[in-house]
Write a structure and sequence with these properties.
Blueprint (H helix, E strand, L loop, with lengths): L4 E4 L6 H16 L4 E5 L5 H10 L5 E2 L8 E5 L15 E7 L13 E4 L5 H11 L6 H15 L9 H14 L3 H12 L7 H4 L4 E6 L2 E10 L2 H5 L2 H15 L3 E8 L4 E7 L3 H8 L7 E4 L5 H10 L3
Parallel strand pairs: 1-2, 1-4, 2-3, 4-5, 5-6, 8-9
Antiparallel strand pairs: 7-8, 9-10, 10-11
Helix pairs in contact: 1-3, 1-4, 2-4, 2-6, 3-4, 4-5, 4-6
Length: about 300
Amino acid sequence: MENKTLIFGHKNPDTDSICSSLVMEKFDRNLGFEVEAVRLGDVNKETAYVLNYLGIEAPRMIASVEEGQAVVLVDHNEFSQSVDGIEKAKIETVVDHHRIANFQTAEPLYYRAEPVGCTSTILYKKFKEENMTIEKKEAVLMLSAIVSDTLLFKSPTCTKEDKIACEELAKIAEIDVNTYGLDMLKAGTDLSDFTPDGLINIDSKEFANGDFKFQVAQVNTACIEDVLKDKTEIENAIQNFINSNGLNLFVFLITDIINSNSQCIVLGNNTEAFEKAFNTKLEDNMAFLEGIVSRKKQVAPVILNNI
Ligand code: MG
Ligand code: MG
Ligand code: MG
């Protein structure tokens, strides 16, 4: 077991999961705690853009934790999205902006949850509350996470607090958020060298309600048609994923970040749950969802309400 407390975000880490882990590491170290930010999967291209901008390395990758390992969870709480072995870890702290589900601990803990658009917005507030100076590096990390999670403030998950935090952080970072943010998001839309398997795993989360298990994966693009060129191969990858994970339903969101819509590829034995949730009929395993960009606010809860 590691002596240090390990800090990490969810599997298939996104920019918030990586950046918030690094910022939380700084926060805890400022308070004198022995901690290390780690990650549960490959860094995506959007996040690589951020790390490259700062000239820093990604946190070390871990696959599992041993019984009793002290951990801090950021940007998630559901065990199905966390590290292997989480059930027997000692969860000291959670800082998150998602629903709380499939979560329990044996001991008391610090739990900070706020319904804001990004974990980094909560971390920004924690720095303020402790009167801690925010340095340029952490400012860039936090503003990148906010831009990513809110799709440059266009997602319905974005709150006033996210915008205020981002404005303040942009001053410290000396960054024009719109220019930097669009470049960062665009870096994440380069899907050219992903296999269909890779594509459905870039940003993929499992949800469960009783026996009903479903997965919602999402990719960002500036051109939906480009992604659909490989539709058959993507469908095969999804079907294999369903079979090996015993899922009822798989929803693959291809999100157009320019126009804020999503094309969905939907497969599984229970696709009627999706059709009911969105009052739509699948054609060719697909449905176009106008104005839908947020898995957390507009997709996962709607499906959960219809199963
Ligand atoms: Mg996340
Ligand atoms: Mg997040
Ligand atoms: Mg996300």
